[in-house]
Amino acid sequence: MDAPPDHVDRLALSGEPAGLEQALIGVRPRVARMVALRLDLRLRGRLDASDVLQEAFIEVHARIGEWRARNDLPFFIWVRFLVGQKLAQLHRRHLGTEARDVRREVALALGGSPAASSVTLASALVSGGLSPSGVAMRAEQEARLAAALDDLRPIDREVLAMRHFEGLSNAEVATALGLEPATASKRYLRALTRLQELVRPRSGR
Hints:
By secondary structure, the chain is mostly helical. The protein has helices at 5-13, 17-38, 49-70, 75-95, 102-111, 118-130, 135-150, 154-165, 170-177, 181-199.
């Protein structure tokens, strides 16, 4: 179970090394979900979420004084931002110029982390209980969902990924993306509606 944000913030603000460690333990499952969703498929087998978090948490320890002095973001959102930056650095380190594409740059500008792959999102949707019994049918459904997700606006796809797959609250999404909460909520509902429209079977054919 994810630790309550207020409790995590108090631990991180305590100034005690043990408090920071407990705060990181509290947010680890949440940022691990983010990494698993956004790790480039070409790096699977070379890197996993633990590798990314290990490097990112070293930076958290080095920069915790900055966060405590400013205290303008919830601890989880700040850690998520640093983890996203570290993931982007690892993409560039291992993939070079191949890591740079329009959607990833848009996502970095929005939330500080690489974009969630439409293929990964589609697979998560199907694995989440929508999977048909046949492998061929499942592959067809994943392809249709991936195409539909590609058709969404980048920011709407990010909101959908953060809310539906990472489990962020509407307020956390708004903070991470610099949106008003009402705007984040509208974008999430719009993305869900649009996705349903795109994957709905067409009649009259």
